[in-house]
Automatic annotation (TrEMBL), chain A:
Protein name according to UniProt: MotA/TolQ/ExbB proton channel family protein
Organism: Pelagicoccus albus
Gene Ontology biological process terms in this record: protein import
Residue ranges annotated for the MotA/TolQ/ExbB proton channel domain, each copy included: 59-164
PANTHER family assigned: PROTEIN TOLQ, TONB2 ENERGY TRANSDUCTION SYSTEM INNER MEMBRANE COMPONENT EXBB
TrEMBL record, chain B:
Coiled-coil segments: 52-86
Signal peptide: 1-22
Species the sequence originates in: Pelagicoccus albus
Protein name: MotA/TolQ/ExbB proton channel family protein
UniProt similarity note: Belongs to the exbB/tolQ family.
Length: 174, 451
């Protein structure tokens, strides 16, 4: 059964050409990064949050200029941790459709190669190039869409983590 | 009769020569003339009479000749009738013999027609077949046999049969033989050639092309890729049992030679293509430089953040120096903050320099690709205006430019976008550290060291 899927996949890549491999590589990288972020938000975030909160609570001085700066530094440390690689994920999401277009144009070049060699009569020859033009576009869009929602959700999660920490690190007014 | 004008001429001569006594002698002269004309008339009538006498005397002789001619005519007519009869008789005999021959020939007529047709068809096969490089001069025999009106002889029929059988047998063989090969410089030499059926001929340099017009083998101007030629050359050398053949008998090899390689493709992009490639090079050079400097700064900063006691020569170190200088009880908090902000403002441009250039390059590249597309389409439409749409190959140049520049634009933009995002990430993190984090960390460090 897996062999069957493998054969189908291999046919798909054969039809789509080299650009599909590039899209596949970008998609894999994107999802590795997304899963890593997901792991961070689900398991690591709680510990980091609790540790930072404990550090702040253990401080005596919570109102001086230095205390303000230290609090700011804690929030920024959390932001840097939470936002790590999210920009890269968003860039990869943006690159996928570009790769799709690249595949389209290389496919069209193939079509015109066929026209140059055999004239416009060879519809079968042209069809291979047209497949190479359309499959990467579709793959690029699907890959991009699959990552787009995750990228937006991760960004929101990072923002919320920062805001939550900012709320809980209270400055004493005395 | 000829005498009359001369007489008149003499008369006028005399009249012109002697105008003085014309009046007296003119009448006598004219009378003499008249007299002489009279005499001539008599003479002529005499001659006429003599002629008539002569004709009358010959009349009998003429009649005799006429009778003789009539007799000859009658004899000829008799002969004519006689010959016509014999012609008709011969015609009948001929028709008889014709039907007799046809009866005796039976189906042979059809067979000879088939032989001619077969020879004509086989001439085309033989002249385009690769085996002709091994057995030259066969096409002429088939051409003669196909066009001749005479009945083919037994020898010719046997030869036809033998040649067809030979072609059939040879087309299934891998043969080694000496043949004349024209190399790419046009120089002819006899060398060993390996023929694989009727598909391909090979020599030690690779595939050969059979030129039908000259009946010679020619080296290809451009051999296909090494992974196709290498096993075939090894096969010619006798090192290998496997061989790559072109089942289309040379058409695929030609197509391989015509397929543009990478440098051809890049050249199709034209000036716009070169501009895009140079932009990519500039972008990559800037990226590499920025990546090296940013990584150096980042590692130094990280080391500095771990050990805040000694201020090094990096952004965080310089902020620590400012902090150490102004963190005194006699300096107000506002002054300290202002000084730190000032130090931070000095550091940020260094971290961000060059990144906007990479971003702009990544944005310009697809636009240039679009420009190339439009330039190519203009070229295409110009060629349509000049030559019409009849020949797709004339339009192909512009279309290739249009597509290749788009591809180049994308190929240039995609890595630059990724690189920009990567470098921007590093630089943003560094800026966040020096702008917001460093002050707090230094503050907590100074608190701890004060205790």
């Amino acid at each position: 059964m897996f062999l069957e899927y493998f054969v189908n996949l291999r046919d798909f890549f054969d039809k789509g050409g080299v650009v599909l491999f590039a899209i596949f590589g970008v998609l894999t990288l994107m999802w590795i990064l997304i899963l890593e972020r997901l792991f961070f938000f689900l398991f690591r975030l709680k510990d980091v949050h609790a540790a930072t909160l404990r550090d702040w609570q253990s401080r005596g001085d919570k109102s001086s200029w230095k205390a303000h700066k230290i609090r700011e530094a804690m929030v920024v440390t959390m932001r840097l941790l939470a936002n790590k690689r999210i920009t890269l994920i968003k860039t990869l999401v943006a690159v996928c459709p570009l790769l799709g277009i690249l595949g389209t144009v290389t496919g069209m070049i193939l079509v015109f190669d066929v026209i140059t060699i055999t004239g416009t009569g060879n519809a079968r020859g042209m069809a291979a190039g047209i497949t190479k033009a359309t499959l990467p576009t579709m793959a690029g869009l699907v890959a991009s869409l699959s990552g787009l929602l995750c990228a937006v959700r991760l960004e929101r999660a990072a923002e919320r983590a920062e805001e939550k920490l900012m709320d809980e690190l209270q400055i004493s007014t005395d | 009769m000829k005498k009359i004008p001369s007489l008149i001429g003499i008369a006028t001569l005399i009249a012109a020569a002697c105008p003085l006594f014309a009046q007296s002698s003119a009448t006598t002269n004219l009378d003499a003339l008249l007299e002489r004309v009279e005499q001539n008339k008599i003479l002529e009538s005499k001659e006429n009479e003599q002629r008539i006498q002569r004709f009358l005397s010959q009349q009998a002789q003429q009649k005799e000749l006429l009778a003789q001619a009539k007799a000859e005519l009658a004899a000829a007519k008799d002969l004519s009738i006689q010959l016509k009869n014999s012609y008709d008789e011969n015609e009948l005999t001929l028709a008889d013999l014709e039907t007799q021959r046809e009866n005796e020939m039976g189906d042979l007529g059809e067979i000879f027609g088939n032989v001619r047709q077969l020879a004509g068809q086989f001439k085309n096969i033989v002249s385009s077949s690769l085996t002709s490089s091994q057995f030259p001069g066969r096409a002429q025999f088939f051409a003669d046999l196909g066009e001749s009106k005479a009945l083919p002889t037994i020898e010719e029929l046997n030869k036809l049969w033998f040649q067809i059988l030979q072609e059939t047998v040879e087309s299934g063989k891998v043969a080694r033989y000496q043949a004349k090969v024209v190399n790419t410089d046009g120089i002819e030499s006899t060398q060993e050639v390996v023929r694989v059926g009727t598909f391909n001929a090979l020599n030690s340099k690779g595939f050969l092309d059979y030129v039908q017009e000259t009946g010679q083998l020619a080296e290809l101007a451009e051999q296909p890729k090494a992974r196709y030629t290498a096993p075939s050359i090894a096969f010619v050398e006798g090192d290998s049992q496997s061989v790559v053949i072109d089942p289309s008998q040379g058409a695929l090899l030609q197509a391989f030679a015509n397929t543009p390689d990478l440098s051809d493709r890049v050249n199709q992009g034209g000036e716009v293509g070169y501009v895009i490639i140079s932009l990519l090079c500039i972008g990559i050079i800037i990226s590499i430089y920025r990546w090296i400097t940013l990584t150096l700064v980042q590692t130094k900063m990280k080391a500095q953040l771990k050990d805040l006691s000694k201020a090094g020569s990096n952004p965080v170190g310089r902020i620590i120096k400012v902090f150490q200088e102004y963190d005194r009880p006699d300096v107000g908090v506002e002054t300290l903050e202002l000084k730190i902000d000032e130090a931070i403002l000095k550091e940020t441009p260094k971290l961000e320099s060059g990144l906007s250039t990479i971003k702009i390059l990544s944005a310009i590249a697809p636009l240039l690709g679009l420009l190339g597309t439009v330039v190519g389409m203009i070229a295409t439409f110009q060629s349509i205006t000049l030559f019409g749409t009849g020949d797709p190959k004339l339009m192909a140049g512009g279309i290739s430019q249009a597509l290749v520049t788009t591809v180049l634009g994308l190929i240039c933009a995609i890595p630059l976008v990724l690189i920009h995002s990567f470098l921007q990430g590093i630089s943003n993190r560094c800026i966040a550290i020096i702008e917001e984090q460093s002050a707090g960390l230094i503050a907590s460090f100074s608190e701890k060291s004060a205790k």
